[in-house]
Amino acid sequence: MKSVAPAFPALLHYEAAHRILMGYMDYYYRFKLITKRARLRFEQRDWHGTQADAVSRISLYRQEVAKTTERLKRMLETSHPDDDFWRQVRDAYSEEIDHFNTRNIAETFFNSVYRHTHGIGAHPEVMFVVRTGSYREYRGLTSISYDYDLNDRPIGEVIREVLDHFPFTVEWENRTRDIRLVAERWSSHPAAAASRLEVLTSVFYRNKSAYIVGRLLDGDRIYPWILPLLHPTGRGILIDALLLEADQVVSIFSYHRSYFLADISVPSDMVDFLQTFMPSKRVSELYNAIGFEKHGKTVFYRELLRHFKHTANDPDERFVTAPGIAGMVMYVFTSPRLNMVFKLIRDRFAPPKQVTAETVKEKYDLVKRHDRVGRMADSYLFEKLSLPLDRFSDDCLQELRRAAPSKVEVLDDCVMISHVYVEKEMTPLNIFLQRADEVMAQKALRDYGRAIKQLAAANIFPGDLLMKNFGVTRVNRVVFYDYDEIELVTECNFRHIPQPRTPEDEMASQPWYYVGPKDIFPEEFPAFLLRAGAQLDYLRAQHGEIFDADFWNDVKRRLLAGEIMDVFPYRTDWRFLQRVES
User: Fold this and answer.
1) Residues 409, 121 contacting (CB under 8 angstroms)
2) 305 in a domain, yes or no?
3) CA-to-CA distance for 497 and 525, rounded, in angstroms?
4) How far apart are CA 185 and CA 240, in angstroms?
5) SS3 of 258, please?
6) CA-CA distance, 4 to 127, in Å (whole number)?
7) Which of residues 394, 426, 458 is at a domain's end?
8) CATH of the domain at 490
9) pLDDT (average), residues 197-202
10) I need a surface site. Which of 210, 247, 315, 458 has the fewest CB within 10 A?
11) What is the rounded CA–CA span in Å between residue 162 and residue 147?
């Protein structure tokens, strides 16, 4: 397609703004179309379709930005626009989106197109780097929730009215029973004293579950009010639990999980609502949770700038090498009060690592698109990220230059990093186990085993099961964060170690049998996970099957048969019906 000279060159900036706006509108239409399909998938039990939609929605943003960029380049190829021109484009674009419900998302789309066009980092004079409105960026005029006055009303009647607002085209298994179970749990909880219930109009869908999300207001206290719904094979829809405590719901919205599919009209109002009962969650995390991960990245960058501003006079708030055993593939640094880590791919990998930098990037992209089941850390990828030079300790800066000189450029007042992943900081599991008492250590080991099993259920074999590659979160949940050796379970060959044929075979320092590139021997895991002793004995007692090839081959068989296994983001003993066929 050839570029066409505008009839009025003085309005070229307006035409450029319009082209970006049309790209955004196309993206947002397709985003909404995918989320609107989620209810239909749930009703039809089309779990593979739900997962495919989740993946395609992540790719959608990148695709639409690329298409918009190409159209824009063709339109501007003979004009050689400078910064003054792009400021005019931004101002014209800003005027057009001023009253959008999704103005903040539209601003991020503009930023992405500009960066994609120019191949540079943040440009404060041209891009929407700082927020243009309130801290929540936009406040809608229409209500995003159904509101119920609870004074002098039977709880069962309220629950029935809530469910009436969410009509499904398929039958409930036993709605009367579910209303009774919800009412019983609600009545026995301190939240029963609340005077008001507000329930979001959007249902949240992910994998094989749907969630009705609300909050209870009791004076200054706010409780979550969440109903997880299931649609098991051969049965109707049922309510699986009522979650009323913040620590019960933070895992559902965790950055370790896939993003929800939800039909949302005003994302910033939705985030504001969710944060009232999850105050520990960053705004950026909640944007991620509801599917706007690119805007979540924008908000995180703004949070980072605020952090730099608020700690400007703190000499102890400098970047240092992250604690733990240094990785052979990634160099990791952090800042004491930021609670985030920055991970760079080293220019060279020490033996025995044989992966390439491109392979590592592919693994991170796989994790971004895969179901993380609460056991793999999500990350923001930044390209050409500029960080203040005076925020780096001498040791950290020296290690950056040594580990990844091709990706690090030290300028007059900043350090420019060409490719870096940013994740939530966790305590490495090996360090946690060294510091923990026996009770906490055993709890972590139990969760470590559960993490491996849940990853397997999601078709992920971590590859390197060493404790240093797992972290413990603020709520003591074990999460995997080292991705350079992950493989799909369905692509691995799990084997038992063959019996030796002779005494010489048994004493040989090298395997006497053939080992293929995808061959894995689970019996070998204990030898390098933990030293022989009480902790290894406890892990064997709790999760010994992970050391048996039969366990892995059974999981592989089920996955190859097309089964999507249940991994619930809340505890089994919180479920009303603890044995539900899927």
Assistant:
1) no
2) no
3) 12
4) 12
5) coil
6) 26
7) 426
8) 1.10.510
9) 97
10) 315
11) 9
Please tell me whether residue 228 adopts helix, strand or coil conformation: strand
**Domain membership flag for residue 192:** yes
Q: Residue 362 sits in which domain range?
A: 310-426
Question: What is the pLDDT, as a whole number, of residue 121?
Answer: 61
580 occurs within a structural domain: no
502-514 mean pLDDT: 77
- Inter-CA distances, 378 with 131, 192, 303, 543, Å: 24, 36, 17, 26
Q: Is the pLDDT of residue 83 over 90?
A: no
Question: Which ranges constitute the DSSP H helices of 47-102?
Answer: 47-76, 83-97
Report the chain's terminal Cα–Cα distance, integer Å.
51
Same domain, 199 and 265: yes
Sign for the pseudo-dihedral over CA of 91, 93, 96, 99 = negative
> 477 to each of 256, 332, 374, 432, 542, how far by Cα in Å?
10, 21, 9, 11, 17
550 among known catalytic residues: no
- Is the pLDDT higher at 354 or at 581? 354
Tokens of 282: 């960053």
Q: Is the peptide bond before 511 cis (omega within 30 degrees of 0)?
A: no
In this structure, the answer to whether residues 366 and 229 fall within a common structural domain is no
Q: Which residues contact 437 (CB under 8 A, 6 or more apart)?
A: none
Residue 579 has pLDDT above 50, yes or no: no
Same domain, 432 and 420: no
Percent of the chain beyond pLDDT 90? Answer: 78
Active-site option among 272, 378, 482, 484: 378
Tally of domains in the chain = 4
d(CA 291, CA 204): 11
Q: Last residue of a domain, which of 426, 457, 479?
A: 426
The answer to whether the CB of 377 falls within 8 A of the CB of 255 is: yes
Regarding whether 82 and 149 lie in a shared domain, the answer is: no
pLDDT at 504: 74
- Tokens 């985003």: give the residue: 31
Is 125 part of any domain?
A: no
CA 317 to chain centre: 27
**Alpha helices (H) in 148-202, listed in sequence order:** 155-164, 175-187
pLDDT tens per residue across span 6-57: 556 788 999 999 999 999 999 999 999 999 999 999 999 999 999 999 999 9
User: Are 456 and 564 within one domain?
Assistant: yes
Secondary structure of 402-418 in the HEC alphabet? HHCHHHEEECCCEEEEC
Q: Residue 5 has what pLDDT? A: 53
Would you state the pLDDT for residue 582?
40
pLDDT digits (tens, 9 = 90+) for 162-195: 999 999 999 999 999 999 999 999 999 999 999 9
- Residues 377, 423 contacting (CB under 8 angstroms): yes
Same domain, 175 and 273: yes
Task: Report CA-CA distances (Å) from 150 to 213, 222, 476.
Answer: 17, 14, 35
Residue 491: both structure tokens together: 């692509």
pLDDT tens readout for residues 407-432: 999 999 999 999 999 999 999 999 99
* Residues 113 and 69: beta-carbon distance below 8 Å: yes
435 with 507, same domain: the answer is: yes
286 pLDDT band, cuts 50/70/90, is: very high
The β-bridge partners of 320 are 334
Encoded amino acid at 80, one letter? H
User: Residue 315's CB: how many other CB atoms inside 10 A?
Assistant: 7
